[in-house]
Design brief:
40% helix; four-stranded mixed beta sheet
């Protein structure tokens, strides 16, 4: 007697495939609480893959490449800074911005990205300075140290 194998209905199969795809996307999604580690130490995230005109589902060209201890941005189409922020990425982590070529859909976002990067780095520096000052205040005995007369 032959065994009958149950094949999922097309709708069930499609839902299962979608759920599996979602899980794989979530596994490598950017964000401070996400695990970046891959066996190779490399992670690539496309922030935009549309050329020329963004669509509702696709932003203009921008790719993040993460290596252990480094984060690089390749191309910077208009609106890339907004797309990067929506991922939970801390912009001050971007070390270098590479431009593949000078078509507008690959470089018109450079200005706003540089402004965003600079303000994120300035805010990070100010936070670190405040934390350092608070630590120094805790280390000095009362009435001594910086600011004591």
């Amino acid at each position: 007697r032959q065994q009958q194998h149950q094949v999922p209905a097309p709708q069930q199969q499609s839902q299962q495939q979608q759920q599996q795809l979602q899980r794989s996307f979530l596994k490598y999604q950017l964000g401070s609480d996400q695990d970046w580690s891959l066996p190779t130490g490399l992670a690539v995230t496309w922030l935009g893959t549309s050329s020329g005109t963004p669509t509702r589902d696709r932003n203009i060209s921008c790719t993040l490449v993460r290596l252990p201890g480094a984060l690089y941005m390749v191309d910077c189409g208009e609106g890339s800074h907004r797309q990067a922020r929506s991922t939970g990425l801390r912009l001050e982590q971007v070390e270098t911005l590479f431009i593949t070529h000078l078509h507008g859909d690959h470089c018109f976002g450079i200005g706003s990205m540089l402004v965003s990067l600079c303000s994120a780095r300035r805010a990070q520096r100010e936070l670190e300075e405040q934390q350092q000052q608070q630590q120094q205040r805790r280390d000095w005995p009362a009435g001594e140290g910086p600011g004591a007369l």
